[in-house]
């Protein structure tokens, strides 16, 4: 990062906190004629940092921004992979770095927006992500372990990764263990210093307000056809196990559609219990996101759009 045009803004926060709306608002403000003249840039464009929104066809379940919500602002790294295939953090980092360079070449400002802390850290801390191919023999061994045992094993081998990962997501736990067992060490930071011209904006929101937003957003997406989306993905060839591995919405809707049990074999998962479990798991996920973000002392926590705009103005001067 040598000059003003090579700066980056990161908008982050827990799920349902309003990250996308803030990122779009900032991009529109920075694309105005007045802002372009004042800051010497030609506008701003957004790069998604969400590990599920990279997949095609996973829209409502991942909370993917719609064309209407984009309000004409270009968005990148949405729908770049098939959900039938594995998409790694290393692939994300490579694509995101290329996109950042493309945006900078146009004398525009990249805004990274998302809630996947590991993706954001891979970019901003310049993590050295190893290209580890799937080890079917090792995976078969790990599949025999319970999810809590997988998590405890990761916690012992790579505590830093364990703090961020979804501890209920077997697919991600197995992949993380596969990497560390293959390389013999936790994922390191690269020796070269990470970029300094990065502004981290975090959305601060009270837990009780966030819980209400999660509930409202869940109900809205269910009405919009989230169950139909999961049915369609399964009909297109995604196994129930694969859908379960995506976590949260896809996990619980897939289990509901399969009539999975929670305790006794005769106890079918009801719609009401499915939504309650999903609400609870999403709230827990938001807490884990905040635990991860709170480790970053560079984040400027904001409560509204005006605060964000004032900080951005000072950052770009």
TrEMBL record:
Residues reported to bind ATP: 13-20
Site feature (Interaction with substrate tRNA) residues: 116, 139
Catalytic activity: adenosine(37) in tRNA + dimethylallyl diphosphate = N(6)-dimethylallyladenosine(37) in tRNA + diphosphate
Magnesium in keyword set: yes
Renumbered residue ranges of the record's region Interaction with substrate tRNA: 50-53
Purpose: Catalyzes the transfer of a dimethylallyl group onto the adenine at position 37 in tRNAs that read codons beginning with uridine, leading to the formation of N6-(dimethylallyl)adenosine (i(6)A).
NCBIfam families (UniProt xref): miaA
Record's subunit section: Monomer.
Family affiliation: Belongs to the IPP transferase family.
Name of the protein in question: tRNA dimethylallyltransferase
Organism for this UniProt entry: Candidatus Portnoybacteria bacterium CG02_land_8_20_14_3_00_45_8
């Amino acid at each position: 990062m040598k000059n003003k045009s090579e700066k980056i803004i990161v908008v982050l926060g827990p799920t349902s906190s309003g990250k996308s709306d803030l990122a779009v608002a900032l991009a529109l403000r920075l694309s105005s004629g007045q802002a372009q003249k004042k800051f010497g840039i030609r506008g701003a464009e957004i790069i998604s940092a969400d590990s599920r929104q990279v997949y095609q066809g996973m829209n409502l379940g991942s909370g993917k921004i719609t064309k209407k919500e984009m309000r004409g602002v270009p968005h990148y790294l949405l729908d770049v992979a098939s959900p039938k295939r594995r998409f790694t953090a290393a692939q994300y980092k490579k694509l995101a770095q290329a996109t950042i360079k493309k945006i900078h070449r146009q004398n525009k400002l990249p805004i990274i927006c998302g809630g996947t802390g590991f993706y954001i850290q891979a970019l901003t801390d310049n993590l050295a992500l190893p290209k580890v191919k799937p080890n079917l023999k090792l995976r078969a061994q790990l599949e025999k372990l319970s999810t809590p045992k997988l998590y405890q094993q990761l916690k012992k081998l790579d505590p830093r990764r364990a703090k961020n990962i979804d501890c209920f997501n077997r697919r991600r736990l197995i992949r993380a263990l596969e990497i560390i067992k293959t390389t013999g060490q936790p994922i390191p930071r690269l020796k070269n210093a990470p970029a300094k011209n990065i502004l981290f904006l975090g959305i601060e929101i009270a837990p009780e307000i966030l819980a209400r937003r999660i509930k409202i957003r869940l109900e809205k997406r269910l009405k919009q056809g989230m169950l139909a989306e999961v049915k369609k993905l399964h009909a297109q060839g995604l196994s129930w196990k694969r859908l379960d591995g995506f976590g949260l919405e896809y996990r619980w809707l897939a289990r509901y559609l399969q009539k999975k049990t929670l305790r006794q074999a005769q106890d079918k998962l009801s719609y009401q219990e499915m939504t309650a479990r999903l609400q609870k798991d999403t709230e827990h996920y938001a807490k884990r996101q905040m635990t991860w973000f709170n480790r970053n002392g560079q984040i400027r926590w904001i409560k509204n759009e005006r605060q964000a705009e004032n900080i951005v103005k000072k950052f770009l001067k």
